[in-house]
Design a protein that fits this description.
Layout: H1 15-20, H2 29-46, H3 61-67, H4 72-84, H5 89-105, H6 113-121
Helix pairs in contact: 3-5, 4-6, 5-6
């Protein structure tokens, strides 16, 4: 599981949600596409001086520690997650890369606590309690 960046548990959707929840606002695909293209352009610019690296996922461990700087609160959150969830060094690198991508998608220069929290959440299959 360490080699998979995103882990998501998918639960069944109830009939009522499927049948009656179509009134909520939905983000258009064109809007999502534009945000993804902007994030990819940020990454291309970030790695322009690094031959063979075009995205956050391609960063080495050393590069991810340089590019994915987090503040003290972020370090505390990540340390707590690493300890409580007994995550590996590989999971640590993956979390940093996913948090960097989350920040890119949000148009943020720095990785915030919300980006780290999202990246940690996306490691759900690393958790002991997964699948009940």
């Amino acid at each position: 599981m360490d080699r998979i960046d995103l882990h998501i548990e998918v639960t069944p959707v109830s009939f009522d949600k499927l049948a009656f929840d179509d009134l909520r606002p939905v983000e258009k695909s064109t809007t999502i596409r534009a945000r993804v293209e902007e994030a990819r352009n940020r990454q291309l610019d970030r790695f322009k001086d690094h031959p063979g690296v075009f995205s956050n996922a391609q960063m080495s461990s050393r590069m991810s520690r340089e590019v994915c700087q987090i503040d003290g609160v972020g370090r505390t959150l990540l340390k707590t997650a690493m300890t409580r969830l007994q995550l590996s060094a590989r999971a640590y690198d993956r979390i940093l890369k996913v948090a960097r991508t989350s920040a890119d998608l949000a148009g943020k220069e720095d990785i915030g606590i919300e980006h780290l929290a999202e990246a940690i959440q996306l490691r759900s299959l690393d958790r002991e309690s997964w699948a009940g």
